[in-house]
Specification:
The structure is a homodimer.
Chain A (H helix, E strand, L loop, with lengths): L2 H6 L17 E10 L12 H17 L3 H4 L2 E4 L5 H9 L5 H4 L7 E4 L5 E5 L5 E8 L3 H16 L6 E2 L3 E2 L11 E8 L1 H6 L2 H10 L2 E4 L12 E6 L7 H29 L1 H17 L5 H16 L8 H10 L2 H8 L5 H16 L1
Antiparallel strand pairs in A: 1-5, 1-8, 2-3, 3-4, 4-5, 6-7, 8-10, 9-10
Helix pairs in contact in A: 4-13, 10-11, 11-12, 12-14, 13-14
């Protein structure tokens, strides 16, 4: 996938539900490592001179290494692409909303063919090495970022302290520099009203839950992003293992609640799912939040065998395809919220019918 | 149409929208005349002996006359059919809810092949001669009941007073004994919030507005039954002419409001109609009132060319086919409200998809 493909199509690897374990509940897994180059100021203190030096070192590492994965990454510099294109990358979850805000030449993204491996360059840290996979694959994702990290470390001198671990721009990342997360679709837990209790327990285990677009974003469409809170005092392996265990427990709980719904409220469930499908495929305008909430019902219908005509990867694609930048990119023009709501309804119809 | 056809199929003449004038707004027209036989007590005071005499006289009049229309009427006696079957006749608008409540042998219905002409026997009066036509056809309906009335009057001695006119069981019917009504679908007037103002004016003109099933029933699905209030001091022709004029004025006002909606709120209108269609065709359970309200949106969509796949007569049939007795007759069993809601959703899908 070229950079242009990445910007013009909505599909990236994490959407490929057919290859993802537990993908009836786990949408995607992500692991990222924060890394910084020694002797270069952190991005928020970056000067043009250091910026050039930083980019040169990273490009050198990519070009001169012998690692196939690292060598295959394509590079986008944010002074070369539009605001809409940067938003496209945010909506695909490849970069953070904060990273998209500025267009300095030293900011950018390195990304492989299918969007499963990416490095944010000069976001909050010099490098944020990320892996995105479909379903519950935190261990697999960790193993892939580790490979990429190793390949980079052969050529780059990372800021590392024997006692503290990897040094990062924000103290909450110091240590492993790792954040691992899994996106879970939990409609039955949400319907049962147990969400709060479950997530209180999770916080006590050093984990946290966020919305679709990470820190500070609300939960919409019953999509909960479960991630580790702690980066010090635990090894990467422990964090990954804990997160996997908790994710599996939540997945089991969601399955239990789905079974209960199916048994005790079959008609009401089928009614709710049918109506949501009916509105999604017949509305003339749809807001983003309404669409995500209706898609949650339809996804539950697909997962429970109530709807058979829709593939899960289409629903994953839709999470992204209905976002503002994707809609505007597709239409080839800037649009106000009202026009986007109309285009969103069209896009949903196209994908679902 | 035999009596059995009438009870087993939902279609009757007034549903045939394609042949009804103004049928984008006027669903059906009805005219009825109340007539009583001299020397026989009114139905609420009826004895078995008088009951037999009454039925004999009416049957004689039907059999011995030379009028083709009168001769072609089939007869149902209410002691011969079930409660559900009597409810079927109520739901088709052929008899009043009150008439269906009792099963005495002298109560019944005489009805022609297509259900356009019918006589309720020993409802509140000995005879209630009725005509039902699709669209705005009050004059045509009056002309047909008049023919039937003339044919009956040749053989029967009606209670008539030179000064008061036809004598009836309830004083509000004395005089012409006539009630004429037209069922109007007024979603745009309802959306505009003008309903109350319009109907206040109508009351001052001696007309009244009721719900789908006449006196004491609420307005559902934006279906308003406009009828005359006064039966004395005006000729039949005046009443019919006034009602037609007022109906046409309301129809024009509804068209005006529809045009305005289309111009000023096109997307919202298409959105509302699309969603209602989506819910109707995908819900697993539907209450009667919800179905009628959603069908009102779909009908507006058909009338305004937003939905092209549905015929108006199907929507007319559905008004009746979704009612409790029709659902139970179709399923061949008694059902509670929850089961009926499920069967209703199925019936709607069958007719609309």
């Amino acid at each position: 996938m070229s950079i242009s493909d990445l910007l013009n199509n909505s599909f990236v690897r994490w959407m490929d539900a057919e290859t993802g374990p537990e993908s009836d509940i786990a949408i995607s897994s992500r692991v990222r490592l924060a890394r910084n180059l020694r002797m270069i100021p952190f991005p928020h203190l970056m000067t043009p001179e250091y910026g050039k030096k930083c980019i040169r070192e990273i490009n050198d590492a990519r070009e001169k290494n012998e690692d196939k994965v690292l060598g295959a990454l394509n590079t986008i510099s944010f002074d070369q692409i539009s605001v809409i294109d940067r938003q496209i990358l945010v909506e695909k979850h490849l970069i953070s909303p904060g990273h998209a805000e500025k267009s300095e030449f030293f900011r950018g993204l390195m990304v492989n063919e299918d969007g499963s491996l990416a490095i944010m360059v000069n976001e909050e840290d010099h490098l944020r090495i990320q892996c995105f996979l479909p379903g519950l694959q935190i261990k697999e994702a960790y193993s892939l970022v580790q490979q990429l990290d190793d390949a980079l470390e052969k050529r780059l001198d990372f800021a590392f302290d024997e006692r503290q671990g990897y040094l990062t721009s924000c103290p909450t990342n110091v240590g492993t520099g790792m954040r691992a997360s899994v996106m879970l679709h939990l409609p039955a837990i949400a319907l049962s009203g147990q969400t709060r209790i479950i997530f209180q327990n999770i916080n006590q285990l050093g984990m946290t839950v966020r919305g679709l677009y990470g820190e500070g974003t609300e939960v919409v469409g019953n999509l909960f992003q479960l991630s580790n809170q702690i980066t010090m005092g635990q090894t990467e392996e422990d964090i990954i293992s804990n997160l996997s265990t908790i994710a599996i427990q939540i997945i089991e709980q969601e399955r239990l609640m789905r079974g209960k719904l199916n048994k005790e409220m079959q008609y009401q469930l089928e009614d709710r799912i049918g109506r949501s499908y009916g509105v999604l495929t017949n509305a003339r305008t749809l807001s983003s939040n309404e669409a995500l909430n209706l898609l949650s019902d339809v996804r539950l219908g697909v997962d429970m065998g109530i709807i058979n005509s829709i593939k899960r990867f289409v629903l994953n694609e839709l999470i992204v395809a209905i976002r503002p930048a994707h809609l505007q990119k597709k239409s080839g023009k800037e649009m106000d919220a009202f026009s986007r709501d109309i285009e969103r309804a069209k896009a949903v119809k196209e994908k679902l019918l």
